[in-house]
Known about the structure:
- By secondary structure, this protein is mostly beta strands.
- It is built from 2 helices and 12 strands, in the order ββββββββββαββα.
- It has helices at 136-139, 175-198; strands at 2-8, 15-23, 39-41, 44-52, 58-68, 79-83, 86-87, 92-95, 101-107, 119-132, 158-163, 167-173.
- Strands 3, 5, 6, 7, 10, 11 and 12 form a 7-stranded mixed β-sheet that branches. A 5-stranded antiparallel β-sheet has the order 1-2-4-9-8, with no helix packed on it.
- The longest helix has 24 residues, at 175-198.
- The protein starts with a strand and ends with a helix.
Amino acid sequence: xxxxxxxxxxNGSFVSTLRMELYQDSRYTTLLTIPSTGLNLKTKIYVAVQxxxxxxxxxxxxxxxxxTTTPYPTQTTYYDLFVGCNRDAQTKIxxxxxxxxxxxxxxxxxxxxxxxxxxxxxxxxxxxxxxxTATCSSLLPNCGAQxxxxxxxxxxxxNATITSxxxxxxxxxxxxxxxxxxxxxxxxxxxxxxxWCST
Length: 199
């Protein structure tokens, strides 16, 4: 249900296990089940990235999360969910740099190159850092200013990129979205009928 990455500092003084989990609820309690037919478009996906086996001295910070069509994070074709202050309109960051778990959510989408495919697959990658709790807040970008306020890289013990399991998406939208579209169309049709009858 998740992918683990072991990371350590240069002298091996600690080892942390990073884990990425995908959930289907806003409380991050029910793991996301992806059917063989794929998730519907715009399905909300809740992501938790957690570091374990660490002392309380460190927090987890996500610098960037993005998607590619292969499990390789170095692929040239990618879609950024967020990089510092810049984020996709459908992406919401709920917790980052404040504990040993980072939380965010986004809506399922498809790459343009998969438009003629019934289902498409993408992988989520997050570039992570471990930061000392006393300095984590200063490592976060200052989104109210023109420039990003960052401390020196030496304040960050180590970093790693963690990759999700495959996320398969179908061409269809979620049932709620489809119902909303149908409801809006019915209301418009009803209004047009009333307007025609009144004339």
